[in-house]
């Protein structure tokens, strides 16, 4: 068992700053740093990435808080004054992704920027940021798992941790659900980094992210014990959101894969060189397949 007795707050005189909030801010900054580092490879300027960032962060934070409040409706209906108290924790990953994507899509449409290419760019920064953010969950004790007898269980001992007080007092070992997510995200990140060696259709890396992220969240939620409100067929809100994403994304991902097998795309590689397989294709076949691909990309 692993014992965690760290105070989840940084205390400065009478001020208590949640470590969770520090990790969230650090995760956002890490995502921005990585996005800026990848900007030129995907054809964006640093100014465009910063503009996307300024559009995504407010929408992501609002969406993250809103979905969390909906998910824990009973808690917030009992005490509505807790709704704006975001510094106490309480953000939904799906809410962040949905809210951030909505504002990014609006901005990309307004500025006539390639949305799919930007979504492909942010897969790596997003997974890195999500992983770092979950470290804050481990420190704080939120998003905690169900009791376990497995040797890698976490035991929280600090009274300010977010677990039930009797679990802390009785030293109940629990599944390290946030750690499971970190390991899942890092595995998915490794897959996406490996795929960068191939010329993929626009949007395919983001689809891989959607499928991997949703599958991971759906499975790991079965190991979560923090207050969960079943929404449908015993599934909580996160799982209910994950299911339609998987139902939509998996067939689309398979279609993208089939297009890639039929005809490797002709596009600029990350180094800026043009990769073409025209020499190995009959004349006129490229245009026809490209039209078919464009049809699938819409």
In angstroms, what separates the terminal alpha carbons? 50 Å
Number of strands: 6
Percent helix, as a range, is 55-70%
Along the chain, the helix and strand elements come as EEEHHHHHEHHHHEEH
What gross morphology would you assign? globular
Uncertain spans: 265-298
Q: Roughly how many Å is the radius of gyration?
A: 22 Å
Q: Can you walk me through this structure?
A:
There is one protein chain. The chain has 298 residues and is mostly helical. The protein has ten helices and six strands. The chain has helices spanning 19-38, 46-71, 73-78, 93-111, 115-140, 165-170, 177-195, 204-220, 237-262, 285-297, and strands spanning 2-4, 9-12, 15-18, 154-156, 267-268, 274-275. The strands form three sheets. The protein has a two-stranded parallel sheet with strand order 1-4. A two-stranded antiparallel sheet has the order 2-3. A hairpin with a 2-residue loop joins strand 2 (9-12) and strand 3 (15-18). The longest helix is centred in the N-terminal third of the chain and has 26 residues, at 46-71. The chain is globular. Pathway: Protein modification; lipoprotein biosynthesis (diacylglyceryl transfer). Its EC number is 2.5.1.145. Catalyzes the transfer of the diacylglyceryl group from phosphatidylglycerol to the sulfhydryl group of the N-terminal cysteine of a prolipoprotein, the first step in the formation of mature lipoproteins. This is Phosphatidylglycerol--prolipoprotein diacylglyceryl transferase. It is a multi-pass membrane protein.
């Amino acid at each position: 068992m692993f014992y965690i007795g760290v105070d989840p707050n940084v205390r400065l005189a009478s001020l208590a700053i949640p470590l969770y909030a520090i990790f969230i801010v650090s995760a956002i900054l890490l995502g921005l740093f990585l996005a800026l580092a990848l900007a030129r490879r995907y054809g964006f300027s640093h100014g465009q990435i910063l503009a996307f960032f300024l559009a995504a962060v407010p929408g992501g934070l609002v969406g993250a808080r809103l979905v969390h409040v909906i998910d824990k409706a009973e808690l917030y209906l009992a005490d509505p004054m807790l709704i704006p108290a975001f510094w106490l924790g309480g953000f939904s990953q799906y809410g962040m992704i949905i809210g951030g994507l909505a504002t990014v899509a609006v901005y990309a449409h307004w500025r006539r920027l390639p949305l799919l290419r930007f979504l492909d760019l942010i897969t790596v920064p997003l997974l890195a940021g999500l992983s770092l953010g979950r470290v804050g969950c481990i420190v704080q004790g939120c998003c905690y798992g169900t009791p376990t007898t497995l040797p890698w269980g976490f035991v929280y001992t600090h009274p300010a941790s977010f677990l039930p007080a009797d679990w802390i007092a009785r030293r109940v070992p629990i599944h390290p659900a946030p750690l499971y997510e970190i390991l899942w995200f890092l595995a998915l990140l490794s897959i996406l980094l490996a795929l960068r060696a191939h010329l993929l259709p626009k949007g395919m890396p983001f689809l891989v992210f959607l499928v991997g992220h949703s599958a991971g969240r759906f499975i790991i939620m079965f190991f979560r014990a923090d207050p969960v409100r079943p929404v449908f067929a015993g599934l909580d809100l996160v799982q209910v959101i994950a299911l339609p994403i998987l139902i939509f994304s998996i067939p689309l991902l398979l279609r993208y894969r089939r297009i890639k097998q039929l005809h490797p795309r002709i596009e600029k590689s990350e180094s800026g060189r043009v990769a073409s397989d025209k020499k190995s294709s009959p004349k006129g076949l490229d245009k026809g397949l490209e039209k078919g691909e464009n049809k699938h990309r819409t």
